[in-house]
Amino acid sequence: MRAARLSAWRAPLELVSAPDPTPPPGGVVVRVLACGVCRSDWHVWTGADPDVALPHTPGHEFCGEVVATGAGVTRWRAGDRVIAPFILACGACPDCAAGHQTACAHQVLPGFTAPGAFADYVAVAHADANLAALPAGVAPDLAAALGCRVTTAWQALTGRAALAPGEWLAVIGGGGVGIAALLLARALGARVVVVDVVDEKLAFARRLGADAVVDARAGDAAEAVREITGGGAHVALEALGTAETTATALRSLRKLGRMVQVGMPAGDHATMTLPWDVVYSGQLAIYGTRGMPAWRYPPLLDLIAAGRVDLSPLVTRRVALSEVTAELAAFDRPAPPGVAVVTDFSG
């Protein structure tokens, strides 16, 4: 099969011929139909993720078609169109039994701890516990964006912060996960203010229905959010993983507000100095979140299938496998609005 291989940090991905994967016991092999290019892939590319050893094939936001099944698989067969979370849980440990698959101690992460989906095929472990059926009406390019950014935003808003209709959500960072949060929050009946430093992203957020946008270059962004929302957002979603944006998220909240850390703190930002006086005096709640278990996919897919949310504007670039390096390098600076998805695995 053809795969994009990372052999040195920040080096161009090499298009190589690699052996086709075989299905592990309980797992399947999926022919990749589309795979998103995510900021987490950038962390892999730069060497900031300690779980990654070179050489390595990145890529974790994928959907595809089952082409082979391993021993013990009961729910899937060749030809099924599927989507998988980027955290593949074992399905058998106490955390999995309690429904907390993203906390599974035996998890496998394609694109991080296992070969990823910047390739023609990818192996999916513990398929019965992890795969979800992809509805016929959901196009592969959109489905690929679901595997990380959309599902992470959905879990943050509904599984962690319990965003309610009429509440204000402050989205700190108007990239892929931030725009997904905007679209989902609007579908849930919330009001949304998006904070960023890129004119294009702020304009994009406004076009997609943001009630307000804040240019963080223009002054105190948290104060601006508090003024717009009449005292502070009920929920803040931090989507970049830096100390500055996390502090902004906390300061943008009203008393008893909830902040969800969605952006992955890595490298220099793995340890942060934060305004804990604001947490104490505001009696704030802070939630961490990472991915979403497969059993929570159906309500989200039903929302999309029913036409209650249109996520298609999220995908703004459809690229070839040979263009992945350029998309990764774009995260070195404020990236263009929307999400890039690999849809051409021959180019």
TrEMBL record:
The keyword Zinc applies. Signal peptide: none annotated. It comes from the Bacteria. Keywords: Metal-binding, Oxidoreductase, Zinc. InterPro entries: ADH-like_C (IPR013149), ADH-like_N (IPR013154), ADH_Zn_CS (IPR002328), ER (IPR020843), GroES-like_sf (IPR011032), NAD(P)-bd_dom_sf (IPR036291), Zn_alcohol_dh (IPR050129). Residues 4-342 form the Enoyl reductase (ER) domain. The keyword Metal-binding applies. GO terms for molecular function: oxidoreductase activity, acting on the CH-OH group of donors, NAD or NADP as acceptor; zinc ion binding. Its cofactor is Zn(2+). PANTHER family: ALCOHOL DEHYDROGENASE-RELATED (PTHR43401:SF5), L-THREONINE 3-DEHYDROGENASE (PTHR43401). Belongs to the zinc-containing alcohol dehydrogenase family. This is Alcohol dehydrogenase. It comes from Rhodosalinus sediminis. The lineage of its organism: Bacteria, Pseudomonadati, Pseudomonadota, Alphaproteobacteria, Rhodobacterales.
